[in-house]
Specification:
With about 425 residues, the protein is of the alpha/beta class. It has 2 domains: about 110 residues, Urease, subunit C, domain 1 (Roll); about 300 residues, Metal-dependent hydrolases (TIM Barrel, Alpha-Beta Barrel). Strands 1, 2, 3, 4, 5, 14, 15, 16, 17 and 18 form a 10-stranded mixed β-sheet that branches. An 8-stranded parallel β-sheet has the order 6-7-8-9-10-11-12-13. It has 13 helices and 18 strands. It binds zinc ion (ZN). The site of zinc ion has 6 residues, from loops. Keywords: Hydrolase, Metal-binding. It comes from Caldiarchaeum subterraneum. This is Cytosine deaminase. One of its GO terms (molecular function) is metal ion binding.
Amino acid sequence: MSLLIRGARLRRLDGFYDILIEDGRIVELSTSIKRSADEKIDAGGRLLTPSFTDMHFHLDSALTLGDPRYNESGTLIEGIEIWAEKKRGITVDDVKKRAIKAVKMMVSYGTTRLRTHADITEPKLSTLKGLLEVKKEMKDIIDMQITAFPQDGILTERGNVELLEKAVEMGADNVGIIPHYELTREDGVKSISVAFDIAQKYGKDVDGHVDETDDEQSRFLEVVAAEAIKRGYERRVTAGHATAMHSYNDAYAYKLYRILRRAGVTIIANPLINIHLQGRFDTYPKRRGMTRIKELLKHGVNVALGHDCIRDPWYPLGRGDMMQALFMAVHVGHLMGYQELKDSLDLITINAAKALRIEHEYGVETGKRADLVLLDARDELEALALQRPPLLVIKNGRIVVRRSGSEAELVIGGRKEKLDYV
Ligand SMILES: [Zn+2]
C-alpha cells in the first residue's frame, strides 16, 4: 500500500512538498514527486505535521463524569475522593468500554501516541487489566504506553508497594509516583526511592505525578532529578504537572532548571486540568498554578504536554484534542509571540518524541515512520486560531481517520466506523 500526498506545507520549510509513503515509512519527500501511488491526496497547501503525542492521560477514569457524582469544589482532592468511590466496584469491561471510546476520540483529533496511567491502588488491578487489553486492541491506531500509577500513594496503605511491582510484572511500561500525596515529606522522598528501585529492577522508565499542588514547599521534583542523576537514569524520567514550581521563588526555580536539565527530566504540563484545579485555595489574586513552560524551555529543559483527563472527576470537559491543550498552554504560559506560537507545536510533537526517545523514527522526513496528521490550516498560527479538527490522520502509513465537515470516519482492523460523537 502506497500513499502520495501532494502540495503540503511542512513546518519550518517554505514552499510545498510531495510525500510518498510506502510500507509505513516516508520513502520520498521533494517539491515534485514523479512516481505514482495506490492512493493520492491533494493537501491543497495545508500543513502536514507528525501526529500528536499525549504524554499524560488517565484512560481508566475517562468519561465517568457524574458517576457517582460531580466534583463541585473543583479541587484535586475532591476528584481523588470521587474516583475512590467509583473504583470500588469498577470492572474490566467498564474500563475497556470507556477507554476505547476515549482513544477513538483522541485519534480522530490527531493523537497516535499516548502515555496513559492505570491506577494500581485499585487492588483487583481491573484498571490495568482493562488498559492492557485496550493497548492490544487499539494498536493499529495508537501506540500506547501504560504507567503503573499509585493514585492513593505508595506508602499510604499496606500492600501498595507490592501492587506497584505486580503491575509492572503484568505488563505496565513505566513506574509511577505521587510523592506530594504521601503522608509526610519523608514518605514522599522514600516513595521516590521505592519507585526507582522497581523501575531499575525491571528496566522501566519513571513517569510521575510530581508536586501537583500550589504548596511552594512541595519540592519533590529535585529529589526525582537527583535520583535520576545518581542512578544513571538520565532521560528516562518524566514528571507530570510540577505545578508547585509556579509558586517557587526564582532563585530556587533557577537551581531546579539546572538539575532538571542535567537529569534529562521531561516536564509534562497539563494545562487544561491545572488551570482548572490549581489556585482553588487562593482568594485574590489567584495563582494560575501552571508549571513554568517558557522558562523551562529557555533553560534547556524538555517540556511536553498531556491532555490528562476527559470528562471525569478532575475535568468536566474535553474531547481528547491536543490542540485544545496547546491552546490553553500558550495562553497560560505567555507563549503568544509569533515565533513562540510557531514553535509551540513542538510541545505536542517532537518534544514528546524526545521524552520517549524515539526521535530517530519521528518526523516528516525520508526514512521516518509515517505517523502524520493533515491539519485544516496553512500554518501553526492558523491551526491554533481556528481549532479545526484534522482532515487526515495517518498511522504507520495508513489513513486511519478521514474527516469531511462534522463527520469523521475511523478505519480500524480493516473496518470503517463513523465517529458521530466527535
Ligand atoms: Zn494525571
